[in-house]
Design brief:
Elements: E1 8-17, E2 20-24, E3 29-33, E4 46-53, E5 59-62, E6 74-82, E7 86-90, E8 97-100, E9 117-124, E10 130-134, E11 156-164, E12 168-173, E13 178-182, E14 195-203, E15 209-212, H1 217-234, E16 238-239, H2 247-254, H3 258-270, E17 274-277, E18 280-283
Parallel strand pairs: 13-15
Antiparallel strand pairs: 1-2, 1-4, 2-3, 4-5, 6-7, 6-9, 7-8, 9-10, 11-12, 11-14, 12-13, 14-15, 16-18, 17-18
Length: 284
């Protein structure tokens, strides 16, 4: 019998040792450490276990059956980020499983952070090592999502990012809806696995939703104004921007449009906090 790491097996206790139990499938033997057993076992007793390679590469057993398995996806918490290698996730067993750099975004700033969750399944590489692989968009079908009601528009929703790109971010909301956040509807690109909260701006015919992470226009004025004011205060009371500045320069510095910049700047001038001179803006 060929036994593969990452699978569930029904094995038999061959003998009891000081550190635990030696299990067998009739051909191979596997150690079930005392800490990995959820009850006391006896010789010849059958036990259902999950097999995985330990730090030395030896396949060992645990009676903890994880919900993340080969070809079975579930959410797993990111425990550690290792540059140039990937991230390690907790699937519920004593060993954390690597999500390889090859399966993470090229842009490392949107790599998941510790505490984020990835929707993963187990896989093995050519050397038989156990890896966790994030779900790709092609793995999801319409049956995996609930159809959002039309009256959801303008409602606040929260969810987890399971795909991210320059075009936008895709999330699974806590209700089970598929949500898309276009790049124009976010100031910064969310991390893969990040929990985000936004506003529904459209309900599509297929039941998916479009989401904005930007505040409503009337709310964003004060937020943008505060960002501009903070920038000026941190730059000795002056910024080389005014209402005639280049839109791309504004976007690159404040991550807002020129129209939003002018609205925020206008509110600051109206409140008497700043003034413009020679194309620059100064604290009053």
């Amino acid at each position: 019998m060929i036994t593969q790491a990452g699978t569930i097996q029904m094995l038999t206790v061959k003998r009891v040792i000081d550190t635990g139990y030696v299990l067998t499938d009739g051909q191979d033997e596997f150690l079930l450490h005392n800490r990995e057993a959820n009850e006391d076992l006896e010789v010849d007793q059958e036990v259902e276990v999950f097999l995985y390679p330990d730090k030395k590469g030896q396949v060992v057993a645990t009676t903890t059956i994880p919900s993340v398995r080969l070809d079975q996806y579930d959410w797993a918490e990111v425990m550690e980020v290792v540059p140039n290698l990937g991230v390690f996730v907790d699937i519920g067993i004593h060993k954390e499983i690597l999500v390889s750099i090859d399966d993470l975004p090229l842009y490392t700033k949107v790599w998941p952070a510790a505490g984020d969750f990835l929707y993963v399944a187990l896989d093995t590489d050519k050397k038989g090592r156990l890896l966790a692989k994030p779900a790709t968009e092609s793995l999801f079908t319409d049956d995996d999502f609930l159809n959002a009601p039309e009256d959801l528009k303008n409602a606040t929703v929260s969810g987890r990012v399971y795909r991210t790109s320059k075009e936008g971010s895709v999330i699974l909301t806590e209700e089970g809806y598929r949500g898309f956040i276009h790049s124009s509807e976010r100031k910064t690109e969310p991390r893969l696995g990040q929990w985000v909260t936004g506003r529904v701006i459209d309900v599509k015919p297929d039941g998916s939703i479009n989401i904005s992470l930007r505040p409503l226009k009337q709310d964003s004025i004060s937020e943008d104004a505060q960002a501009i004011l903070t920038y000026i205060e941190e730059n000795d009371g002056m910024m080389p921007f005014g209402d005639k500045s280049d839109p791309e320069d504004i976007k690159g510095t404040f991550q807002i449009s020129k129209a939003a910049f002018k609205r925020a700047l206008g509110s600051l001038m109206k409140e008497g906090k700043v003034e413009q001179r020679d194309g620059n803006t100064y604290l009053k």
